[in-house]
Amino acid sequence: MEAADLCAGLFPSVVAWCRARQFQDNQTEARRKKRRLQLLAARRLRLRKLQGTWMRRGKVCKQSRLHRLCAHEKWMTAITHHFLRDRMRRRPKVWLYPRTSDWWENTASAFTDDQWLQHFRVSRETFSHLCMMLKPQLKRQDTTYRLCIPLQKRVALTLYKLAYPCDYKTVAELFAVGVASVCRCVHEFCTAVIEVLKPQLVVTPNDSELVKIADFFLHSYGIPQCIGVLDTMQITVIKPPHYQSEPPNRESYLAILLQAVVDGNGMFWDLSTSCPTWVNDSCGLQESWACEGFTIRMLNVCGTDSGRFILGDEGYPSQHWLLKPCTNTSWMTAEQEVFNSQISQAHSVAQHAFERLTGRWRCLNKRNDCSVEIVKDMVETCCVLHNLCEKNKDMFLPEWISREPPPTANGKS
């Protein structure tokens, strides 16, 4: 009983102590929470003050920077004003030379078909065909600074340059363009013709075409299995600066040899051009080919068992596919004389083709002042255009053939 009474007396005191302890803990936690809130409030206040300080500083910096920019702009405006004022006092430089293109735009556009043929050596239909075929390679676009040369004008000035033995300056003044532009147009036109039209117009005949050519020479001149006539002409050029070779004598001149095989219709089906060599009118043709690949091409066409051959002059090297006339001696028989006569008559096909070539494109008649590579391209271009005109049946005027045609490499006119 005493123990129970003791426990009953201690229980209220323990409960009271626990309640007092819990109350103290609650007050301590409340003070801690209040302190934390005060610290957060102080921190927010400091942040707001610091943000305001930075905003004021940024505003001051922006204002000072704006003042500096305004001052700099005023300074640059003043400098530009004085610079332009000084420039306006000077006479402006002329960067575009004034030219008049009245001949091409008015005179040439009003040409009749005969006048057009006389000036450009091709018909209007052939001219349109050239422009259409070469448009991807020759078409140019206008720029912000100047207009490009139209396609028709580029083709026309190149044909005029090839048709007449004139210099670049004459063509430039006639078509109202620069000399450098004429040179560039001629070079680009020749390159485009060689890349696009030459594979179509100057090709080795197939078997059926070779049979037709052989039949033509058989019925016309009595020569069987003849598929072409070989001839060579000279194109005189100036001596290149890097050319070290000297002329063997005072009568020699530098020339490029054009070697071509002509079919019965007077069209070229094989072309070869040589490097510049010294030639002399008083000497005969040297026994050499214009290029090393010519004999290989002829072997592929004629072969060893086909029996076909081409006609050549006595100056060419002897080959089993090349038929040459007999040597002109006093011991020739009647059959040999008839044979030589037949070959001479058949050789007129090549002479006639070269006459029409040089008559239509007169740039081949006189010495060409262009570089050697451009001259070679011009020669091949003239041959390709010759085939195109012959294929399209363009008219050839007799007055185009000069009275003194250029000498060929074999000594004939």
Automatic annotation (TrEMBL):
GO MF terms held by the record: hydrolase activity; metal ion binding; nuclease activity
Which InterPro entries does the protein's record reference? Answer: HARBI1-like, HARBI1_dom
Q: Where is the DDE Tnp4 domain?
A: 231-387
The protein's predominant localisation is nucleus
Cite the entry's keywords alphabetically: Hydrolase, Metal-binding, Nuclease, Nucleus
- Family statement drawn from the similarity comment of this UniProt entry: Belongs to the HARBI1 family.
Protein name per its UniProtKB record:
DDE Tnp4 domain-containing protein
Name where it's found: Nucleus
User: Is Hydrolase found in the keyword set?
Assistant: yes
Question: Which cofactor is essential here?
Answer: a divalent metal cation
Gene Ontology CC entries for this record:
nucleus
